[in-house]
C-alpha cells in the first residue's frame, strides 16, 4: 500500500511528460480505485407455462463474473466478425452461420451449468464451441479447413466437437433427439448431470422434436430443451412459419419459460432455475430464449430481404447484449470503461493471432482423407476416385 | 411361448451335457445341439447385456411384449425397465435418442420392428450415426447397433417387404451384417454389440424359427464372428454362388440338386455386407471360373451389382469363363397374392437356371 502510494505521488507530482505517463497514471489510479465487489440487478420477469415457481427477477453479478462474461461475449463477437471477414476473402468456404447478437445465450447458459453437464446444438455453433472450452484458433482453423482445426479440417463450421459438447449438427432438428439421448445416458449413469439441447425457431416445427418431447417427459429425462428464437428461420419470420409462436409452450405437457435472451443475467438465472428442476428428477423443461442475429441466416444471406435494416439497427442500439452488460458494469462501479477497453484490445489480439494461425496452417495431408471412418479398427484401405487410388484408413 | 422356454431350457441343458461328456468320457460324441435363429439372437443379446452394463435395448414392444417377433423374449423380466426400454411409435425420435446415448458413452441396441420403418429414422442412422466419427476427426465414436428383420416376409405386401442391404451397404462409416444361420446370428450380433462403430444387423423374419446345428464354440459366451469375413458354406469346383441371409439356404439347396447332376457349387455366405469380403469371392472365382450372386433385394444398384463391379476390377476377372450373373428379387414392389409374391423372390429353380446358363449346360 505504501509502495503504491509512493508511486502514485511520484506520478502525480512528477515532472515527466513522456507519452504513456498519462495512461500509466491512469493504470495506477485504476489499481487504487475501489470497485464494488458485486451489484444486484433487476432482470426481466420470465413468462412461464405449467409452472408454479419462476426464475428470480433479480440477479447478483460479481465484478469477477462481469469481467469474465464480458470477455467471453466479446471474444465470441469478434471471432464471428473475423469469420465474416475470412469468408468474404474466400478463406472460409461452404456454410458459415454466425452467432453475433446471440452471445448472451451461449455465455448465460454456460454460466448456469457445470462443465460436467452436456450441451448439443445445431449449426450456429461457433459460440458454444468456444464456451465449451475450445480455443479460438482451433475453431477458426476448422473453419478454414486446416489440419490444426478442432476436427482436423474434416468437419468444418457445422461439425465441431469438444468434451461434453456434441456439436455442431447440420440436419435441422436432428440434434434434439440426440440431446434427449445424452440426457438418457445422464440418467442411466446416475451422475446428476443434465443435457442442454438447443434448436432454433425454425427447427421448432420439426416432427422429431415432438417425438422427443413425448419420450423425454415420459421417461423424465434430465434435458433442458432450449429454443433460441431469433425471429427468423432462414428467411421466414416466425409469424409465417408457426401457428403458435409461443415456443416455450410448444412442449405442451412440458413446463416452459420464456427468457430475455439478450440479457446474460436473465439467461443465467433462468438456466440455473431449469437446471435445478431437471436435476431434481422432475423431467425435462423448455426454455425459449428471445434473441437476435445481426447477420443473415448464413454468409450466403445478406439478411435484409426479409427484415429491415432499421430493425437490425434498433436491436443493435437498444438490446446489444455486450452493450447491456457493459452499461450495467460501468454504471454500478463494477468496472471502468478503460478496463473494458483493455479487454477489447486483448480480445482483438487473441482473435488476430488465431486468424493468423488459421490462415497460415497447412491443409490436412491427403492421407487424412481415408482416416476416421471407423473407431478402434485395424488399418484398412478406402477406395478413391477410381479403383487404383487407395487411401489408408486408420482410426 | 412354452416351446420357446423348453427350447431355451434345452439349450442350457445341452451345454451342460456336452461339457460333462467332454470332461468325463473321451470319445462319446455329444448330441448335436439345435438352436433357432431367434434363440441365437436372444442368447447373444442376453450375454452382452450381462457382460457390459452399458448395453441396453430399446424399441417398440421389446420389453413387456417380449419383442414383436419374440426375439427379446425374457430379457425385460431379467434386466428390467432400465436396460430394456419400450418406446412409443416414434422411430425418428427413438433412433436419435439411441444415437445420442451412444455418443454419451452407452452401448444401445436400437430395434426397428422391421427395417422398413427405419426409413423414418434413416437420417439418424446415416447423418447422426455413420458420419459422425469422420466429421469429428476421430473425436466422437458412436457405438450403436441397429437391428431388426429385413427384406421379404410372407404376405406382408410392398411396404413391409423391402431389403435395405444395398441402401445401408452404400454408406461409409456404417458396418452392415446379414446373418443367415444361428451361428451367424449369435456371433455377428455379439461382434456388433462389442464394435465401437454403428452396426446395422439385418435379420430375417422367415429365418427366426429355423433351427440350425450349433457348434461347440458357438456355445461360448465369448463366441464372436468377425465382421467383414465371409464363410464358405460348401466347397465346390465348378461354380461360385455368393449370397447373404435366407437365400444362402436356397443356394445350398440348389447346390445339392446340381451335385446330383455332377455340378459342384461353392456356396459363399457373405455374412457381412459392409465391409464386404471380396477376397473370399475372388479366390473362389479364380478356382471355379463362374459366378452367380443371389440376393433377395431389387436388382438395380444392389449387392450383386456391387460384387460384379468389384470382380471386374480385380484379379478374378481374368479367370471368368462367362459373365457374372445376378439372381435377385423381381424389380417390382412386392405384391400380396401368394403366386405373385413367390415369383418375386429368388427360388431354388431360379438359382439352378442361372447357374446352368452361366455354365452353358
UniProtKB/TrEMBL annotation, chain A:
Biological processes annotated in GO: glucose metabolic process; pyruvate decarboxylation to acetyl-CoA; tricarboxylic acid cycle
Instruction: List residues of the Dehydrogenase E1 component domain.
Output: 73-366
Presence of keyword Oxidoreductase: yes
* EC number(s) recorded for this UniProt protein: 1.2.4.1
What is this enzyme's catalytic activity, as reactions?
Answer: N(6)-[(R)-lipoyl]-L-lysyl-[protein] + pyruvate + H(+) = N(6)-[(R)-S(8)-acetyldihydrolipoyl]-L-lysyl-[protein] + CO2
Q: Which cellular components does GO assign to this protein?
A: mitochondrial matrix
Q: Which Gene3D superfamilies match?
A: 3.40.50.970
Q: Which InterPro entries match?
A: DH_E1 (IPR001017), PDH_E1_Alpha_Subunit (IPR050642), Pyrv_DH_E1_asu_subgrp-y (IPR017597), THDP-binding (IPR029061)
Q: Which GO terms describe its molecular function?
A: metal ion binding; pyruvate dehydrogenase (acetyl-transferring) activity
Required cofactor names: Mg(2+); thiamine diphosphate
Q: Which UniProt keywords are listed?
A: Carbohydrate metabolism, Glucose metabolism, Magnesium, Metal-binding, Mitochondrion, Oxidoreductase, Phosphoprotein, Pyruvate, Thiamine pyrophosphate, Transit peptide, Tricarboxylic acid cycle
Chain coiled-coil ranges: none
- Give its localization: Mitochondrion matrix
Q: Name one Pfam family in it.
A: E1_dh
Please describe what this protein does.
The pyruvate dehydrogenase complex catalyzes the overall conversion of pyruvate to acetyl-CoA and CO(2), and thereby links the glycolytic pathway to the tricarboxylic cycle.
Name listed for the protein in its UniProt record: Pyruvate dehydrogenase E1 component subunit alpha
Protein's organism: Vombatus ursinus (Common wombat)
From TrEMBL, chain B:
Per the UniProt record, one Pfam family is: Transketolase_C
Which SUPFAM superfamilies does the entry link to?
Thiamin diphosphate-binding fold (THDP-binding), TK C-terminal domain-like
Q: Which segments does the entry list as coiled coil?
A: none
Q: Which Gene3D superfamilies match?
A: 3.40.50.920, 3.40.50.970
> What's the Enzyme Commission number for this chain?
1.2.4.1
Q: What does UniProt give as GO cellular component?
A: mitochondrion; nucleoplasm; pyruvate dehydrogenase complex
Q: Where in the cell is it found?
A: Mitochondrion
Q: Which SMART domains match?
A: Transket_pyr (SM00861)
Which cofactor names does the annotation list? Answer: thiamine diphosphate
- List the InterPro entries hit by this protein, alphabetically: PDHB_mito-type, THDP-binding, Transketo_C/PFOR_II, Transketolase-like_Pyr-bd, Transketolase_C
What catalytic activity does the UniProt entry give for this protein?
Answer: N(6)-[(R)-lipoyl]-L-lysyl-[protein] + pyruvate + H(+) = N(6)-[(R)-S(8)-acetyldihydrolipoyl]-L-lysyl-[protein] + CO2
Its main subcellular localisation, reduced to a broad class, is mitochondrion
Example of a GO biological process term: glucose metabolic process
- UniProt keyword annotations, A-Z: Carbohydrate metabolism, Glucose metabolism, Metal-binding, Mitochondrion, Oxidoreductase, Potassium, Pyruvate, Thiamine pyrophosphate, Transit peptide
* Superkingdom, natural source: Eukaryota
A molecular function (GO) held by this record is: metal ion binding
Q: Which residues form the Transketolase-like pyrimidine-binding domain?
A: 35-210
Q: How does it assemble?
A: Heterotetramer of two PDHA1 and two PDHB subunits. The heterotetramer interacts with DLAT, and is part of the multimeric pyruvate dehydrogenase complex that contains multiple copies of pyruvate dehydrogenase (E1), dihydrolipoamide acetyltransferase (DLAT, E2) and lipoamide dehydrogenase (DLD, E3). These subunits are bound to an inner core composed of about 48 DLAT and 12 PDHX molecules. Interacts with DLAT.
Question: Which NCBIfam families does the protein's record reference?
Answer: PRK09212.1, PRK11892.1
Task of the protein: The pyruvate dehydrogenase complex catalyzes the overall conversion of pyruvate to acetyl-CoA and CO2. The pyruvate dehydrogenase complex catalyzes the overall conversion of pyruvate to acetyl-CoA and CO(2), and thereby links the glycolytic pathway to the tricarboxylic cycle.
Query: Would you tell me the protein name for this molecule?
Result: Pyruvate dehydrogenase E1 component subunit beta
From which source organism is this entry?
A: Vombatus ursinus
Amino acid at each position: 500500500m505504501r509502495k503504491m502510494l509512493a508511486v502514485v505521488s511520484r506520478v502525480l507530482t512528477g515532472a515527466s511528460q513522456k507519452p504513456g505517463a498519462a495512461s500509466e497514471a491512469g493504470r495506477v489510479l485504476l489499481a487504487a480505485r475501489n470497485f464494488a465487489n458485486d451489484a444486484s440487478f433487476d432482470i426481466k420477469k420470465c413468462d412461464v407455462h405449467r409452472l408454479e415457481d419462476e426464475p428470480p427477477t433479480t440477479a447478483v453479478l460479481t465484478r469477477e463474473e462481469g469481467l469474465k462474461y464480458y470477455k467471453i461475449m466479446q471474444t465470441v463477437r469478434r471471432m464471428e466478425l473475423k469469420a465474416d471477414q475470412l469468408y468474404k476473402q474466400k478463406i472460409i468456404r461452404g456454410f458459415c452461420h454466425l452467432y453475433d447478437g446471440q452471445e448472451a445465450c451461449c455465455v448465460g447458459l454456460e454460466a448456469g451449468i457445470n462443465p460436467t453437464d452436456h450441451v448439443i446444438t445445431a449449426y450456429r455453433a461457433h459460440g458454444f464451441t468456444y464456451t465449451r472450452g475450445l480455443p479460438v484458433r482451433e475453431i477458426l482453423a476448422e473453419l478454414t479447413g486446416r489440419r490444426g482445426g478442432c476436427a482436423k479440417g474434416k468437419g468444418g463450421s457445422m461439425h465441431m466437437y469438444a468434451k461434453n459438447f456434441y456439436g455442431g449438427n447440420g440436419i435441422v432438428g436432428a440434434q434434439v433427439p440426440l440431446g434427449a439421448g445424452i440426457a438418457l445416458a445422464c440418467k442411466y449413469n446416475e451422475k446428476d448431470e443434465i443435457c442442454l439441447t438447443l434448436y432454433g425457431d425454425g427447427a421448432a416445427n420439426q416432427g422429431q422434436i415432438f417425438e422427443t418431447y413425448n419420450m423425454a417427459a415420459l421417461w423424465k429425462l434430465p434435458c433442458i430443451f432450449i429454443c433460441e428464437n431469433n425471429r427468423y428461420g432462414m428467411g421466414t419470420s416466425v409469424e409465417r412459419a408457426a401457428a403458435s409462436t409461443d415456443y416455450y409452450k410448444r412442449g405442451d405437457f412440458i413446463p416452459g419459460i420464456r427468457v430475455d435472451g439478450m440479457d446474460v443475467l436473465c439467461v443465467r438465472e433462468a438456466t440455473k432455475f431449469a437446471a435445478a428442476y431437471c436435476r431434481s428428477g422432475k423431467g425435462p423443461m423448455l426454455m425459449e430464449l428471445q434473441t437476435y442475429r445481426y447477420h443473415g441466416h448464413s454468409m450466403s444471406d445478406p439478411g435484409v430481404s426479409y427484415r429491415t435494416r432499421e430493425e437490425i439497427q434498433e436491436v443493435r442500439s437498444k438490446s446489444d447484449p455486450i452493450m447491456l452488460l457493459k452499461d450495467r458494469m460501468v454504471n454500478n462501479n463494477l468496472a471502468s470503461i478503460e478496463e473494458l477497453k483493455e479487454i477489447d484490445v486483448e480480445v482483438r489480439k487473441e482473435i488476430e493471432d488465431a486468424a493468423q494461425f488459421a490462415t497460415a496452417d497447412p491443409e490436412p495431408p491427403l492421407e487424412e482423407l481415408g482416416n476416421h471412418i471407423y473407431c478402434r479398427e485395424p488399418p484398412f484401405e478406402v477406395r478413391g476416385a477410381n479403383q487404383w487410388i487407395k487411401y489408408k484408413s486408420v482410426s | 411361448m412354452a416351446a420357446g422356454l423348453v427350447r431355451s431350457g434345452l439349450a442350457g441343458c445341452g451345454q451342460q451335457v456336452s461339457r460333462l461328456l467332454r470332461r468325463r468320457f473321451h470319445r462319446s460324441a455329444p448330441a448335436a445341439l439345435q438352436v433357432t435363429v431367434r434363440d441365437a439372437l436372444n442368447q447373444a443379446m442376453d450375454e452382452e447385456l450381462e457382460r457390459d452394463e452399458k448395453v441396453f435395448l430399446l424399441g417398440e414392444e421389446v420389453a413387456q411384449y417380449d419383442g414383436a417377433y419374440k426375439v427379446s423374449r425374457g430379457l425385460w423380466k431379467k434386466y428390467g425397465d432400465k436396460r430394456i426400454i419400450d418406446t412409443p411409435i416414434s422411430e425418428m425420435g427413438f433412433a436419435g435418442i439411441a444415437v445420442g446415448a451412444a455418443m454419451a458413452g452407452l452401448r444401445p441396441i436400437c430395434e426397428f420392428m422391421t427395417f422398413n420403418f427405419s426409413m423414418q429414422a434413416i437420417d439418424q442412422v446415416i447423418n447422426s450415426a455413420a458420419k459422425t466419427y469422420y466429421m469429428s476427426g476421430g473425436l466422437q465414436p458412436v457405438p450403436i447397433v441397429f437391428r431388426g428383420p429385413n427384406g421379404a416376409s410372407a404376405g406382408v405386401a410392398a411396404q413391409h417387404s423391402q431389403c435395405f442391404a444395398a441402401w445401408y451397404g452404400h454408406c461409409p462409416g456404417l458396418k452392415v451384417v446379414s446373418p443367415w444361420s444361428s451361428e451367424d446370428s449369435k456371433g455377428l450380433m455379439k461382434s456388433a454389440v462389442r464394435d465401437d462403430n454403428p452396426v446395422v444387423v439385418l435379420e430375417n423374419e422367415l429365418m427366426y424359427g429355423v433351427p440350425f446345428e450349433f457348434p461347440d464354440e458357438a456355445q461360448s459366451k465369448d463366441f464372436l464372428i468377425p465382421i467383414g469375413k465371409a464363410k464358405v458354406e460348401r466347397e465346390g469346383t465348378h461354380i461360385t454362388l455368393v449370397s447373404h441371409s435366407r437365400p444362402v439356404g436356397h443356394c445350398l439347396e440348389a447346390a445339392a440338386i446340381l451335385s446330383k447332376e455332377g455340378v459342384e457349387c461353392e456356396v459363399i455366405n457373405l455374412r457381412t455386407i459392409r465391409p464386404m469380403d471380396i477376397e473370399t469371392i475372388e479366390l473362389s472365382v479364380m478356382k471355379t471360373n463362374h459366378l452367380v450372386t443371389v440376393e433377395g433385394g431389387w436388382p438395380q444398384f444392389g449387392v450383386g451389382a456391387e460384387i460384379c463391379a468389384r470382380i471386374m476390377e480385380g484379379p478374378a476377372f481374368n479367370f471368368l469363363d462367362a459373365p457374372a450373373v445376378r439372381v435377385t428379387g423381381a424389380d417390382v414392389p412386392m405384391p400380396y397374392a401368394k403366386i405373385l409374391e413367390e415369383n418375386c423372390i429368388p427360388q431354388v429353380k431360379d438359382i439352378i437356371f442361372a447357374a446352368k446358363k452361366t455354365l452353358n449346360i
